[in-house]
Task: structure prediction
Amino acid sequence: MSIDIIGDIHGCFTELQKLTTLLGYQWQTGIPIHPGGRKLGFVGDLTDRGPESIKVIEVVHELIQMDLAYYVPGNHCNKLYRFFLGNKVQISHGLETTVAEYEALNKKEQQKIRRSFMRLYENAPLYASLDNHKLIIAHAGISEELIGKQNSRVKTFVLYGDITGEKHPDGSPVRRDWALNYKGKPFIVYGHTPVKEVRQVGNTYNIDTGAVFGGKLSCLRYPEFEIVSVPSTMPYIEEKFR
Result:
């Protein structure tokens, strides 16, 4: 299995194009296809905050439909899904940019993108266990004892991380650093918490290098464990990095 796993995109379509092109993918058909048969993996949070969330949805949906990629949802994906369901959600923390893009479309285009995203989300696993369970892709990670399970506790962990229930002064949840205690055999590739460089702790890799906050969009190539990144075109926001 040869897979290129990409960190949180957050609507940074330009960076997605640059990174996949650097990785050898070709865009002649409008989606990135690798001539050597490699597949892409996405750790979730495709949308929000960045400038081109709709384009990212379209590309990832098409890749999944053609069985050319793996996708697991992130917390921003979950919130957008609830918005499309018509649930009451706060149009904030980045969702406002995606909603503005969506509302600028005509009714037919809105229906199409809503259907595409809902299909993408509803068919996605909470986390992807690949290569005979040697590799797991989960948005915010997963603890060893939750691997193989599917329940509400797993859903909370993979979407939000190992949250304590407390809040930081800015309103963001306090999270335990689960990777420090992970001793499992499967390699866990995740994102969710922006870091300046890909962070490896044991068999875990955090590949969210804050593309939408002016960092980089990064990829972990498997099974090579090679890291490939492209710089962001977005303004740099130091305080967003942990």
